[in-house]
């Protein structure tokens, strides 16, 4: 049976039309130093929790934030979701040399992110 890590939250993701500007703001506010990860993504990690800023040209819905749960087997979890009446809101996507992510939808429609680290990727 696949497991969820004892530190279940993988990362929290905010979408922003200006991730660089947002990173500067958060650095000034909290002292966080974001590192680029790909062309549209900035990430700050501390004590095993990562906060990410993703380029999104449409303005985010107020209060929108996506949390991701660390899982050991993405496919098995997504199969279980469907067996329990939920759905796949976003099919698995690969991040080379880092991991894979997907989003599930509960039967009520709540969307939850899932993240499976690759070997050598972030745990």
Q: Quaternary status of these chains?
A: single chain
Query: What Rg, in angstroms, do the CA atoms define?
Result: 15 Å
Let me know the number of strands: 8
Read across the widest sheet, the strand sequence of neighbours is 2-3-4-1-5-8-7-6
What's the total helix number?
2
Classified in CATH, the superfamily is 2,3-Dihydroxybiphenyl 1,2-Dioxygenase, domain 1
Order of helices and strands: EHEEEEHEEE
Shape: globular
- CATH architectural group: Roll
Portion in helices:
10-25%
CATH topology heading: 2,3-Dihydroxybiphenyl 1,2-Dioxygenase, domain 1
Structural commentary:
The protein is of the alpha+beta class and 123 residues long. It has a single domain (4-117), classed as 2,3-Dihydroxybiphenyl 1,2-Dioxygenase, domain 1. The protein contains 2 helices and 8 strands. It has helices at residues 19-30, 74-83; strands at 4-16, 35-36, 41-46, 49-55, 66-71, 87-95, 99-105, 111-117. The chain has an 8-stranded mixed beta sheet with strand order 2-3-4-1-5-8-7-6. The two termini are 18 Å apart.
Itemize the secondary structure elements and their pairings.
Blueprint: E1 4-16, H1 19-30, E2 35-36, E3 41-46, E4 49-55, E5 66-71, H2 74-83, E6 87-95, E7 99-105, E8 111-117
Parallel strand pairs: 1-4, 5-8
Antiparallel strand pairs: 1-5, 2-3, 3-4, 6-7, 7-8
Features:
single chain; 123 residues; alpha+beta; 2,3-Dihydroxybiphenyl 1,2-Dioxygenase, domain 1
Provide a short characterization of the protein structure.
The chain is an alpha+beta fold.
């Amino acid at each position: 049976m696949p497991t969820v890590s004892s530190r279940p939250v993988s990362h929290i993701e905010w979408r922003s039309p200006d991730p660089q500007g947002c990173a500067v703001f958060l650095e000034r506010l909290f002292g966080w130093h974001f590192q680029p990860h790909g062309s549209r993504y900035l990430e700050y990690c501390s004590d095993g929790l990562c906060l990410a800023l993703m380029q999104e040209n449409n303005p985010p819905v107020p209060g929108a934030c996506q949390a991701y749960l660390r899982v050991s087997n993405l496919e098995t979890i997504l199969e279980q979701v469907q067996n329990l009446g939920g759905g796949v809101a976003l099919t698995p996507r690969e991040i080379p040399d880092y991991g894979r992510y997907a989003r599930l939808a509960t039967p009520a429609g709540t969307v939850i992110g899932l993240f499976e680290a690759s070997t050598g990727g972030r745990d």
